[in-house]
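Please describe the entry underneath.
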Amino acid sequence: MDEKLLQTFLAVAETHSFHRAADRLNVTQAAISSRVRTLERSLEATLFERGPGGTRLSEAGQQLRPQAEQMLAQWQQLRAGLGRQHSNRIALRLGCQLSIWDSMLVDLTIWAEESLGKLPLSLNFDHESNALDMLHDGVVDLVITAERPAGQKLAVEPLRPEPMVLVATSPCSLSDEDLPLFLNLQLGPEYDAAVREQLADRSGHLLLGNALMALHYMKKRGGIAFLPERLSGGLHCVAGAARFDIPRYAAHNPLGPSRDLVSQILPGLHEITRLPGS
């Protein structure tokens, strides 16, 4: 996710005004409005409500605010630390196709710090754009993707698949007549097939494109969701639901300018995806 979008969201949340947020960030009010619309489209949620008393957070905005503050703080700390260590080096730009893999990029950064002496890394959390297109266009140097790229121009490293499980905030069974609200993360063909086969029209669907938002919603309001097994701690497996895997591949340009850095980071990617919590 674009850092500017999070900064803009928090500025509006803190000032309760698009105009004051524009003054704080030294941009036009039109730019603020455009960034907020982009973020809302990405999350498929309305984040602000306007009224006589000013601009206030919607329910979705209230849920996003602590996550946005945490993500922005971690990103700024990471960038500051790496910038001091590698001010004259080109950063290796990493991205992932699905929001459930954002934490893998952070784990990979930690692995690099511990194993390689802090490689200069840049993490891209943009899930709205096509990950392979970003790789082809040179926006990123390596992406974690659920689809195996076609053609011969990209190098592909198969990774351990992501085990998925249907979980709920309270015990329930797939055979129950009334199921809780299903939070649909829309994570690709394997995911969509599991939803069709196991849930069909038996539960209301709330579309959420972000895994962290889904977890936050479940803790606040309840529900069921297909989540990576590693993210299911504290939740209940839905009885009778079948597990499935989402493929994972690491794709990169073998002739790209960062190919040497990519070769150094690939062993770490294989290592962290083999761990129980990745």
User: Anything to note?
Assistant: DSSP finds nine helices and eleven strands in the chain.
